[in-house]
Write a sequence for this structure.
């Protein structure tokens, strides 16, 4: 079976939720069940409906460090609601993303 994962980019309106999922491990909490999800062309990489930008990826390799695993993947598809686009391109002013 093809191994996949998703990258979900939230906007500032999801700060509280994102802070929580950044503090719990996916090994102990099924993070996919915390939000309304949807699936794209890969059919098995859950993505978060409320995130401004979602990308589904095919897993290439997993590197194990002492504190966590690092997933390396290939982007297959990107999804972004039209409300975050200007002239057909992602508008970061509209998205208001934040990153840690």
């Amino acid at each position: 079976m093809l191994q996949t994962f998703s990258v979900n980019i939230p906007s500032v309106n999801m700060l509280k939720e994102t802070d929580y999922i950044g503090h719990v491990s996916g090994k102990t909490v099924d993070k996919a069940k915390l939000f309304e999800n949807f699936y794209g062309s890969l059919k098995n990489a859950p993505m978060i409906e409320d995130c401004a930008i979602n990308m589904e990826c095919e897993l290439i390799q997993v590197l194990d460090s002492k504190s966590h695993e690092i997933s390396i993947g290939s982007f297959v598809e990107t999804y972004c609601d039209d409300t975050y686009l200007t002239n057909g391109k992602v508008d970061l002013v509209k998205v208001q993303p934040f990153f840690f």
In short: The helical segments are 15-23, 92-95.
